[in-house]
Structure prediction request, 342 residues.
Amino acid sequence: MTRIFSDAGCNGKADSVSRCVACLLFATAASSCGGSSTTVPTPTSASVRSVSVSGVTPQIGTTAQFTATATLSDGTTQVITSLAEWRSSNVGVVTVAPTGAVTGVGPGEAEVTATFNTVSGSQHVQVVERPVGTLFAPAPRSPMGGLEINDARPTLTVDNAAANGPVGTVTYRFEVSDLPSFPADPVRRFAGDGVLQGASTTSWTLNRDLGNDVLWYWHARATDGTVSSGYSATETFRTPTSCKFNVTPSALLYSAGGFGDAIFITTSAACAWTATAQWVFMRIDAVPSDPHSISGAGSARIGTTANANAGCNRTDVVKIRWNGGGVDIPASQRGIAGPCAQ
Prediction:
């Protein structure tokens, strides 16, 4: 009975090849190799007859572990993966690490060879292109149809792109422009790339404020880094109109007997405003719950009424306010007593 030692007993390729061969192939004492041993029947002298290589051919971008096995002259075999010298005949197809790990690089054919004690063995590999699926254009969901939005940084949403065949991780590119041609101009076109696909829809919120009074165009496409879909149908939305107000008259005047007067606001339909009167004797018409304040949007006629004034002349102000601006309309009423000393 003799002993064949595992490759670990040779402490890797740092030991001399001759010592490893001796450890693996000839009868020796366990103490001389320093590794675990397995007792097997074998002739007192054995040599490497052949080396075989086995492994599953990797796809491009993936790695597979290959194995090298030595067949000895006495008919026994020994795994020598970590002891062999590895090489690839075509590194443009596969590369081989010293451990026998084979990585697919590109389509084509190559020989993966392992050499041990001057004896070589190889495996022919044929790497093919990864099967490529198809991505169809996503469908726009919102906003659509020129809808006016109030957010300067709107969120755009598409229904996910359908896929046919294998695809990788899908991300999206969104584009927004004030022109339907989406020119390659950073001032006119804004884009978001690498937006990860959601469960059924994918959304992107613009990372910059959009200007007012503009009809904006947007679309999106999907990609897995290898294959890309076409762009979705182009949709539109409109940012809010810049509100411009014209308020008349510039002053309100009431007689001592009291009567009505009106304030006229002219502006766009989406432009909101409030009107507030400070006088307890002055009422803003048609607001019984709060006779001193009213809110609205768009053009309007605001009726006002002052009670009869038996006292001194009095003055106050009606405040018209809107986002970013407003006017004060002075209001005065004569009193039966006339001017009074302050």
